Amino acid sequence: MAFVERQWLARNPVLWVVLPVLGIAGYAAWQDPAGAWPLLAVVVLSVLLFTGALRTSVDTDGVRLVLRPIWRRFQPWAEVESAVVEPYRWTRFGGWGIRLGRGAIAYSVWGPHAVRLRLAGKRDLVIGTRDPKALAAALELEGVRVDRAE
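RE: above sequence
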């Protein structure tokens, strides 16, 4: 594989703000005799948040994205027209995770960097990355034209 990157959701500082809220919700659910389902929901959400990771890999077939533990996407090279290195603005997409924005779908767990894949006949695919230069270099090795519009 030309490029592999794993980003852990637990490294996102916003998650550490959510943690006390989950703790308070869990405590409130624990105190309620009928609160087994809300407590279970808080526990499941906490586990998903703290085990979540975005794995991006580039190989000869295309780009593979795995947002663990729930989502996978494969983007074949035949649909990729070009790529652009750009800043990731969470306000544009409404946060992190899998986000729908104007003309694009973003996969990001944290950070200010992204690479936008321009797709033929589909919404663009924005991939959050800690190392946009390495991702762009891997795309170029696979024959994708990359504009560095930072």
